[in-house]
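thoughts on both lines:
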Amino acid sequence: MQATFKLFIPFAFLPFCFAFFTQSSTLESTEFSFYSEDIMLHYDASIDLPFNQVLEEQSIVNYYEQLEEINFEPLVKGIKKYQVQFDLNDWLMYELTQKAIGNIAPKQSQKEKVLLTWFLLSKLNYDTRFAFLKNEALIYVRSNDDIFETPLIEEGGNKFVGLTEMQYKRTSNNKAVYLLNFLGAPNGKPFTFSLSSLPKLKPDLQQKKFQFEWVDQQHNITVQCDRTIVNLMKKYPVIGETDYIKTPFSTDLKKSLLPQIKKIIAGKNIVETLQILTTFTRSAFTYKEDESYFGRSKPMIREEVFFYPYSDCEDRSALFYGLVDELLGLPMIIVAFPDHLTVAVALDQPIGPSIQYKGKKFYICDPTGPSNSTEIGSVPR
């Protein structure tokens, strides 16, 4: 049948058909879990390409060009599909890419996996830089976000963040790296870490109970906390304080928490509502510094405050900011002291010393302390 079919193809189309059949390849598939979701990606097995040379300018460029000859499009399209489907930000997309490479090329060395990651990020149109030192391969990516605890380089007024060093400790510390004079995506886009929206991953719900007292009345609150969101934050890069504070509630936490709070504040004026919200964030949770519990700095988003047994001032500020934003919609500012973080709310009614900012008066409503106190409007002592 195939030979008969070819007889009817006009001569002018034969070169195109020949090119199509010679460039086609047999695709394989890999299946794995990504947090709470099952993933299937198709790829050309040839992409598991060994790199048995010394890391040098020409050998790296040659390797990149060899990868370009392979049918990489199905893998790139698959990653893009899941990025859109689950609303993954760039960091989570990077994690998905890393996990895919681990399944596609499990026997590759760390150096080879970094090279392949760099290639795929470039084909996903991110503005990357490849750096190397001796036998160590490193990826940097342009970002406008505030990122901490990882090396940065500057080029042309732009900031490039060390992605590789967020996963692997660099063995050659305090030594300058060589930056490859080759761009995989010359017009690539910046990389974002912000969680302005949470990914649409299947929730893994856990019930949590809390209680607090306001004006001699005890209130009990039960919420649904999403462990999927908590798990993805465990190894998340350290981002700016504002990003933690503005990361939204998960859908299930919001649905379970806000209606209960609304019942408690029903009929109360704005000042009373702020007193109730500060009493909740001060008293329903147990205070402990990150270093004491986690052994490291661990800023939390709102979801984590409900999941972990302890939280500190940064974490309470994130939760309080979210509650005021959702329930009152009032302007707020974050106020940083040398050893404390707190929130000030814009009010028309004076409740204490104010902070003038952009023509508005803001009053401190400290989400952390004093515990079991309804006092607002003053600098925490």
Observations:
- Residues 104 and 110 are 14 Å apart (CA to CA).
